[in-house]
Every structure is written in C-alpha cells, then in structure tokens.
Design a protein that fits this description.
2 domains, eight-stranded antiparallel beta barrel, alpha+beta, 13 strands, 60s Ribosomal Protein L30, Chain: A, four-stranded mixed β-sheet, elongated, Porin
C-alpha cells in the first residue's frame, strides 16, 4: 500500500482549507511548556497494488478479469505529549487506520477477497514553528508499531491456503500539520501523516491519515472572573417634613487617599521562570499591597509587566502581558479593587534596570538569565484621586 501523487495533492488541499478555517478565529494562543492530550479523526487512504495481485493469481494458474478496490476508510488517533518549549514536543499515542479491501474475479471462475485492518502505537518528535501569537505549523517524525490483520477468502476455483495472516512490525512515520489555539488550554489541529506499514504477506507500503482534532493543554490560565455588580438597596420613602429644626449630623469621615506610589516586584519572586501563574511565596508580597489598597480612595492602579531582552518580541510581549494580568486578577480578587480602576500591560525589554554592558552575551545561559533578573519585574503604580475641577 502506498500513497499516490493524487492522494498527496488531495491531502495538501485538505490541510490548506483547514488552515484557512482556523486563521479566522478571534482567540489567543498558549505556548508555555506542559503536558497535553488530544484526539483526531479523519480519512485514511491507501493504494492497493492491483498489478501484484494479478501476478500472484497468475502464478497460481488464475487470470484476473476485474479487481475492485476499497482504498479509503475512517481513521482516528488518541495521543498525549509534553511540550518542552515553544519549538519542541515529544508525543505518543494509539492509532487506528481502519481497513482496506479488494475483490478479484478470476478465470477459471472464482473470486478472491482480501481485507486488511491496521492499528498500533506511535512515538514522535514534534518540531513547532510559531507563525503568529495564535497560529503555528509543526512537523513530526517518529516510529509506529503497527499490527496488520489480513483476511482472505476464495470462492469457486480459488482456494486460500492461509486465510488469516497477521504481522506486527516497527516502521517509520512522518507528517505535517497546522495548529490554532482557541483558548490558553484548547487548540484545534489539522494534519496529514504517512505511516509505513508491513501488510503481513511480505509487502511494505504507505498509508496516509488526513485528520482534524482538538488538543487540551493542562495548566492553561483561566479567564479572570467578571466583577459582580453590587445589588442596590431598597430606598425608603422620605418622611414628610416636620416643623422642627434639626441639627444635621457631622459628615462621615472621608476615605483615606494614598499618595501616588510605585511598588516594584521581582518577577522571579512572583513567578517561576517562563511562567505566568503567581507562586504561593509571591502571593504574600501581593497580599501586603492588597491590605494597603483595601478601602482606600484612588483614581487608578496601573500594573506593568517587564521582560528581559532574551527571546523574541512576540513571545516576550505575551509573557509580560500575562504576568501583568495575573497580578491584576489577584488584586481584584484579594483587595476588592473594581475591575474598571485597574489596568495591565506588558513591555518587551523596555526601561531595563541593568546598565548597558552590565550583562554581556545573547545566548540564554544560566549566567545571563541570572544577570538580567532585575529587568524581569512587575511594577504597580497607584495614582491618587485628583482634585475636583471647578
């Protein structure tokens, strides 16, 4: 069984349509390291070697008059893997390529029916190429351990000596695909793969699977909960005025207005390296700031996440923005700050704390990462209420 040029063109066209479909979605991507699982479904395709079947029948004294092939079926795979960084993952899983068959009519009068079922396990190295913050391409190469189960039946003059041969064998596989993240945890994937298969009767060929599926990544950031609007209290009707002079009560004390202030937190104290989830130790530092802000009167709180100069602009912007949003969410939930009075943004290597020439090198070594630690930070700026305009 082998893939023809026509099948390869169809596989490429199907993959291109899937790419256009996923590019149109208004969602975000997640590319931090972590575990993931997924499932794909699609169409499997093979090419049955009619010429070889005819030669085999001729060697047994039969001439084939017609051969009818069934070369397509439903296929699927279940998989899991670990993404080490934005460019590499290791993935393994189970696949079922379905079944393929043929029916040959012979002279002397008879028929030969052949059927093969294919399923097995695979282990792949996956190379990932981010194209945008939301969209990426990937290629894979690996091994498949497939089981081929054949069934042959004959009628009339055709007699089958071995009706149920089977074979388990390890061969290569490879493929190309496109992936688009619907959320930080969920992505849609489209891909075309080629499996090298031993068909259990002495032949090796290729079977293709063109499929689409969903990938779930563990540890994705959940959306920040929307602030709940406070329920309005019923207002009692004002009593009728009395002909008595009443001394008005003193006005309530005004809420404390903090002076403008800026607090800087080390990103390494709030987050693990290359992560955007606040660590337990970092929560203690944020709790102190939350206690100062709770019940205070201010105009706005600005949260700015800063990255170091290592890495691409798109990646650094995304990571620093997520870290700022994580601090924003924590202050909204812990200090009761109205969501409309706190903003968050990320910055890529701007306004570094380290001095020019202090941290030399461009390769991300442990020494350079440690030296650039002060540049990875989150600044929280509290702006006091402005005087009323007259």
């Amino acid at each position: 069984m082998k893939l023809t040029r026509a099948n390869l063109a169809k596989a490429t066209g199907t993959l291109g349509l899937a790419a256009l479909a996923v590019i149109a979605g208004p969602y975000a991507v997640a590319d931090e390291a972590g575990w993931y699982v997924g499932a794909n479904v699609g169409q499997s395709r093979a090419t049955i070697d009619d010429e070889r079947i005819s030669r085999s029948l001729l060697g047994s004294g039969f001439t084939s008059t017609t051969i009818a092939d069934d070369e397509r079926d439903f296929g699927y795979k279940l998989y899991g893997g670990y993404q080490f960084n934005k460019n590499f993952a290791l993935e393994g899983g189970y696949f079922d390529l379905g079944q393929f068959s043929y029916l040959a009519t012979t002279v002397p009068t008879g028929t030969l029916n052949g059927n093969i079922k294919l399923r097995g396990l695979n282990l792949d190295a996956v190379g990932i190429l981010p194209i945008t913050d939301k969209f990426s391409a990937f290629g894979r190469v690996g091994l498949n351990y497939a089981e081929a189960r054949d069934t042959f039946t004959g009628t009339g003059a055709v007699n089958v000596l071995d009706p149920n041969p089977s074979k388990r064998d390890t061969n290569y596989k490879f493929g190309l695909g496109l992936q688009y993240a619907l959320t930080d945890s969920l992505a849609v994937r489209a891909e075309a793969e080629r499996y090298r298969i031993n068909d259990a009767v002495g032949n090796k060929g290729d079977v293709d699977l063109v499929s689409v599926g969903l990938v779930y990544k563990f540890g994705g950031k959940s959306p920040a909960p929307a602030p709940r609007a406070a329920a309005s209290e019923p207002v009692a009707a004002a009593p009728a005025p009395q002909p008595t002079v009443v001394t008005p009560p003193p006005p309530p004390p005004a809420a404390t207005k903090p002076a403008p202030r800026r607090v800087t937190f080390s990103a390494d104290s709030l987050f693990d390296f290359d992560k955007s989830t606040v660590k337990p130790a970092g929560r203690q530092d944020l709790d102190k700031l939350a206690a100062d802000l709770r019940g205070a009167d201010f105009d706005v709180v600005k949260v700015t996440g800063y990255s170091d100069r290592i890495g691409s602009h798109a990646y650094n912007m995304k990571l620093s923005t997520r870290r700022a949003e994580a601090v924003q969410t924590y202050l909204v939930e812990s200090a009761g700050i109205p969501a409309g009075k706190i903003t968050a943004r990320g910055v890529d290597g701007a306004n570094p704390v380290t001095k020019p020439g202090e941290c030399k090198g461009k390769k991300a070594t442990k020494k350079l990462i440690a030296c650039l630690g002060p540049d990875r930070r989150v600044e929280v700026e509290v702006m006091a209420q402005k005087p009323a305009q007259r």
